[in-house]
Design a protein that fits this description.
- The protein is an alpha+beta fold.
- The protein has a single domain, classed as Peptide deformylase (Peptide Deformylase, Alpha-Beta Complex).
- It is 23% helix and 29% strand.
- The strands form 3 sheets. It has a 5-stranded antiparallel beta sheet with strand order 2-3-4-7-8, sandwiched between helices. The chain has a two-stranded parallel ribbon with strand order 1-9. Strands 5-6 form a two-stranded antiparallel sheet.
- It is globular and about 45 Å long.
- The two termini are 25 Å apart.
Length: 190
């Protein structure tokens, strides 16, 4: 089932996700729905806060990057209760976007190698290292469960430049090719 993507401005996107247990209600169904939502929205990753759940769960599929990094063919993973243990290497810039912030892409600097501890969809624990685009996608989605958006990394000048576009997203003045849920404040703003 396709789940609506939470738009920029919703407070859930700024919350630190809570740890979940193997008996989290309908976890398998939730993960399946998240994959369907990610694929339908043409994303390469999706975190639970982006569908309105402040829990430590995200999914990725880096297959679209296999042309540049052939080892990413079929690279699809579920991360539960993840913790990045180490980030290393010389930072590099890449133009990032986010399903919760449609029509905005910006250069973001990240370290090229990470080591992460997490549980998979069967609650088997793993500690693994990733490099390149896999590391970048994981870092981006990991940020979501920490309440961080890629726009938080931008300089004050870049933030001022895109302020109107972000405001338009908060107010529902965007038309992505997928369904979104816009935050309504107490004032009834959409």
């Amino acid at each position: 089932m396709f789940l609506p993507i939470v738009a920029y401005g919703d407070p859930v996107l700024k919350e630190v996700g809570v740890v979940i247990s193997p008996d989290y209600p309908k976890l398998k169904e939730l993960i399946e729905n998240m994959y369907e939502t990610m694929y339908t929205s043409h994303g390469v990753g999706l975190a639970a806060p982006q569908i309105g759940l402040a829990i430590r769960l995200f999914i990725i599929d880096c297959s679209p990057f296999e042309e540049d990094e052939p080892h990413l063919a079929g690279f699809k993973k579920t991360f539960i209760n993840a913790e990045i243990i180490e980030e290393e290497g010389e930072e590099w810039f890449f133009n990032e976007g986010c399903l919760s912030i449609p029509e905005v892409r910006e250069e973001v600097s990240r370290k090229p190698k990470i080591t992460i501890r997490y549980y998979d969809e069967n609650f088997v624990e793993h500690t693994e290292s990733y490099e390149g685009m896999a590391a970048r996608v994981i870092q981006h989605e990991y940020d979501h469960i920490e309440g961080i958006l890629f726009t938080d990394y931008l300089s004050p000048l870049r933030k001022r430049i895109i302020k109107r576009r972000l405001s338009d997203i908060m107010n529902g003045k965007v038309s992505p090719e997928y369904r979104m849920r816009f935050y309504k404040s107490k004032k009834g703003r959409r």
